């Protein structure tokens, strides 16, 4: 009996040891897996950390978000934007700009019905312009970009442009050229000495000149000299007026450590950050072309190949009511119809 009990105890001990070994192996595997999911890569002068997996990424964003607020020391942030604006600032200055601009955009109607009215007004203008083509070939890419720009500029400057305005067409062409130059000069991010290459091989100087002209154009849209700033006034027309009023208010309060100045205002403008315009316009152009395709074929054609009859038929199918004849309230006539 005693020998049997001893054998049973020995077997139990062996089982416990095996279980402990299995647990240790599992822990080692988990640790190895985590280590493999965190990797560091040397990309030119930058040492980057790559995170793989939902758990690690969520942990980094939620628990260690303050360590992710930095900006890379590349030529885009350093030379072009000069660490100004929401996308280039970091730390407390970024938090100040972000909280102020978010509250300001909500005040001006972003995310509410006021913004929907502005978009519907531009939608009506887009449809009437397409109807006015009378069956002739029409390129709507610039037209859509002008409509998107009008929505953004309406919030920023209370300004609207016609599709044939030379200033807005030149500015949109400058946006396209800027992204082409950024692609061509991407190597400067990893090898900064390339910007001194002879003959402007990586288009560094041309990129600076194009962005300088764009900044001067946007600054002209500000109409800074003709704006009357009253610190006690709480009725704001646009983003620029509110920003300038806040700058004057902080000057009167003698606030020194602040990022709210005219240089950051210019860099924080949505018109200075043309990514929404270029990202939304091709998508909307494609969707409009997709809507106006023929029902008998699967191939879709661009709107330039469509006739006015097809446009009218599609419009009656998708819009039971006639085109909008109202105009958004609260803005002058020059903002809506130039």
Short characterization:
Keywords: Iron, Metal-binding. The chain has 338 residues and is mainly α.
Beta-strand portion reads under 5%
User: Stretches where pLDDT falls below 50 for ≥5 residues?
Assistant: 30-35, 294-315, 317-338
The rounded Rg comes to 29 Å
Mean pLDDT across the residues is 72
Structural class given helices, strands, pairing?
mainly alpha
Report on the structure:
Helix 5 runs antiparallel to helix 6, helix 6 crosses helix 11 and helix 7 packs antiparallel against helix 8. Mean pLDDT is 72; it is low at 30-35, 294-315 and 317-338. The chain has 13 helices and 2 strands. Strand 1 and strand 2 (46-51) form a beta hairpin. The protein is elongated, with a radius of gyration of 29 Å. The protein has helices at 2-37, 54-62, 75-80, 91-107, 113-131, 141-157, 166-184, 204-222, 239-252, 262-268, 275-291, 308-318, 333-336; strands at 38-43, 46-51. The chain starts with a helix and ends with a helix. The protein has a two-stranded antiparallel ribbon. With 338 residues, the protein is mainly alpha-helical. Residues 1-42 are annotated as: Disordered. One of its GO terms (cellular component) is cytoplasm. InterPro entries: Cyt_P450, Cyt_P450_E_grp-I, Cyt_P450_sf, Cytochrome_P450_fam2. One of its GO terms (biological process) is organic acid metabolic process. Belongs to the cytochrome P450 family.
């Amino acid at each position: 009996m005693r020998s049997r009990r001893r054998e049973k105890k020995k077997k139990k001990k062996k089982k416990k040891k095996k279980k402990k070994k299995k647990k240790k192996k599992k822990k080692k595997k988990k640790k190895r897996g985590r280590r493999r999911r965190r990797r560091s890569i040397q990309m030119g002068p930058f040492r980057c950390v790559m995170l793989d997996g939902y758990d690690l990424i969520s942990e980094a964003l939620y628990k260690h978000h303050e360590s992710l607020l930095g900006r890379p020391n590349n030529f885009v942030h350093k030379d072009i934007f000069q660490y100004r604006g929401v996308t280039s600032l970091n730390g407390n200055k970024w938090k100040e700009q972000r909280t102020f601009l978010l509250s300001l955009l909500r005040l001006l109607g972003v995310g509410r019905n006021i913004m929907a009215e502005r978009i519907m007004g531009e939608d009506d203008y887009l449809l009437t312009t397409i109807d006015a083509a009378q069956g002739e070939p029409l390129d709507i890419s610039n037209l859509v970009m002008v409509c998107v720009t009008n929505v953004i500029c309406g919030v920023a400057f209370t300004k609207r442009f016609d599709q044939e305005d030379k200033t807005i067409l030149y500015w949109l062409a400058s946006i396209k050229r800027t992204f082409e130059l950024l692609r061509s000069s991407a190597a400067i991010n990893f090898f900064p000495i390339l910007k001194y290459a002879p003959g402007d091989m990586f288009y560094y100087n041309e990129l600076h000149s194009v962005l300088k002209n764009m900044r001067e154009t946007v600054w002209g849209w500000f109409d800074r000299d003709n704006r009357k700033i009253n610190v006690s006034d709480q009725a704001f027309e646009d983003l620029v007026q509110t920003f300038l009023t806040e700058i004057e208010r902080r000057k009167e309060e003698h606030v020194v450590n602040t990022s709210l100045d005219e240089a950051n205002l210019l860099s924080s403008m949505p018109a200075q950050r043309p990514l929404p315009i270029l990202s939304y316009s091709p998508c909307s152009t494609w969707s409009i072309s997709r809507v106006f395709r023929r029902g008998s074929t699967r191939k879709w054609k661009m709107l330039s190949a469509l006739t006015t009859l097809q446009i009218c038929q599609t419009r009656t199918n998708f819009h039971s009511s006639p085109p909008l004849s109202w105009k958004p309230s609260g803005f002058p006539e020059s903002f809506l119809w130039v």
